[in-house]
Amino acid sequence: MTSYALGLDYGSDSVRALLVNALTGEEVASTVVYYPRWSKGLFCAPAKDQFRQHPLDYTESLIEAIQSLWRKAPAGAAQQVVGLSFDTTGSTPVALNRDGVALALLPEFSTNPNAMFVLWKDHTAVKEAQEITAVANAAAENYLKYEGGIYSSEWYWAKALHVMRADPDVARDVYVWVEHCDWISAVLTGTTHPDQLRMGRCATGHKLMWHASWGGYPPDAFFAGIDPLLKGLRDRLPVETFTADQLCGRLTEEWAGKLGLPVGTPVGFGAFDCHMGAVAANVKPGVLTKIMGTSTCDITVASYPDIGAKTVRGICGQVDGSVLPGLVGLEAGQSAFGDLYAWFRNLVNWPVANLVQRSALLDDATKQKLIHDIEDQTLVALGDEAAKLAVGEAGITALDWVNGRRTPDADQTLAMAIVGLKMGSQAPQMFRALVEATAFGARAIIERFKDEGIAINSVVVIGGISKKSDFVMQVCADVWNCPIDVLESEQSCALGAAIFAATVGGVHINVASAQQVMASPVCKTYVPNAQAALAYEKLYANYQHLAGYVNKGMP
To answer: What is the rounded CA–CA span in Å between residue 101 and residue 94?
Structure first.
């Protein structure tokens, strides 16, 4: 009898379901379903950095994705699933009431953005993040020392505080805040009630300030000292946390019926997408895994002897077991990568897109298809032309902070800058500068790890960009001056989730054994060009100079 593992990957725009043969590693079938409300831009206000997602987008899309999967999979595959596990974006918390129900699922909150999941890219909580950082740095015990020393507006406590300050109704009815990766596993196992809720190590360690050395979370007095609105919230969180290779619970009868799976199917604890993606990439000490999409998330691991009592400055945390049991997971990343390219694409396409939208000769479906085709062709054309330029020929230096800076040293108040523009600067020259900016921003992260004594000898990349653009990947290899391996799997994060599902389901005795069979092979390697790498040393110095200038504040 075949044993299948089911991995679910919740991205920013869609959920992906991947069915994997746990005995051979074969990726049998996959589906992608886009969130219907999010696709319409509902509950978001980009001009205010507000990005919210309705919980029904997550549950309805999950049902559609898995039911669609059975139409592609071998007959009877659903009955041979040994386990399922989830990864999600993060930090993406939501408010639950005393009964464990997400507020947005209640009639009175059904259209209230503050009652919905606060997506990772929501930056409305900059002020709150600064306050948390200031209080932590002034305390006798710095509770941010395992989270890089700076709290981010992208993270749990800042978002919770901001929403409660902005919305008294939510502040009145919220009982506990829960990350998406912990919520979805609890929903399927019927354990969302605060008395039954259990949470994974990944989200709690990287975003909630959980650490074993202080017996869980910082004391209630620490949070109450930031704002009385936070008083008591940490006491409602479960103190014990679990690595993703452990059993969260079993599929309820209700959800088994909705998903077409056997009642009691094992469900693992959830984790963030990049962490599970790194597992699919066979992450190990000395190897940095980059998930390159709208933003990037950078993951590596270190052994206990290697990291010791060291705390790495300016990253997104170091957490025992957040990636692999028995190793310390370290996270960093950039707030915009593909998003920067998309911003420029939309900028240069605006006149054409606007004219198409205003056309009375085309129906709406034709307009959308035409605009979509133009967008796809624009990035390809820009990359093709930019690749023809010699290193440094454009004379343009840009920063990658169009959505603030995640690492090193989080600061979401920062903006990008471009210098060196002249009358001869055309779209390909500018696009090349933006690609170089994202590569420079990634190099700054690599150098921070190295400066802090964390070995980075090579890079493995996953995500859409790694498969779509030879130009972008070669620039990265030259700027980083190290080889880059690209994974074969098109769904690396979902594959990582499937690896954990196979472990939770008992097919493999541990994650390492599952990786030997199921982890993705490398499909392509980019090697740095020595001449280009040398030329980029000067251009990287220009990037650092501009970054220092902007970081101090332009006059």
So the answer is: 10
Taking the C-alpha atoms of residue 487 and residue 476, their distance in angstroms, rounded to an integer, is: 16
Span 8-24, pLDDT tens digits: 999 999 999 999 999 99
Q: What confidence score (pLDDT) does residue 342 get?
A: 92
C-alpha 248/C-alpha 501 separation (Å) is 11
Tens digits of per-residue pLDDT, 463-516?
878 888 999 999 999 999 999 999 998 899 999 999 999 999 999 999 999 999
Please report how the helices 492-504 and 273-280 are oriented relative to each other, as an axis angle in degrees rounded to 10.
80
Whose structure tokens read 């004379």? 395
- Backbone phi, then psi, for 332, in 5-degree steps? -145, -165
**Considering Cα of 436, then 437, then 438, then 440, what sign does the dihedral take?**
positive
Q: Is the peptide bond before 492 cis (omega within 30 degrees of 0)?
A: no
Q: Tell how strand 296-302 and strand 328-334 pair up.
A: antiparallel
Could you report the per-residue pLDDT of 104-151, keeping only the tens digit for each? Answer: 999 999 999 999 999 999 999 999 999 999 999 999 999 999 999 999
Class of domain 338-484+522-552: alpha beta
Q: Token pair of 500, please?
A: 């954990």
CA distance 523 to 495: 15
Instruction: Give the chain's length.
Output: 555
pTM of the model: 0.92
Q: Is 12 helix (H, G, I), strand (E, B) or coil?
A: coil
Tell me the domain boundaries of the chain: 338-484+522-552
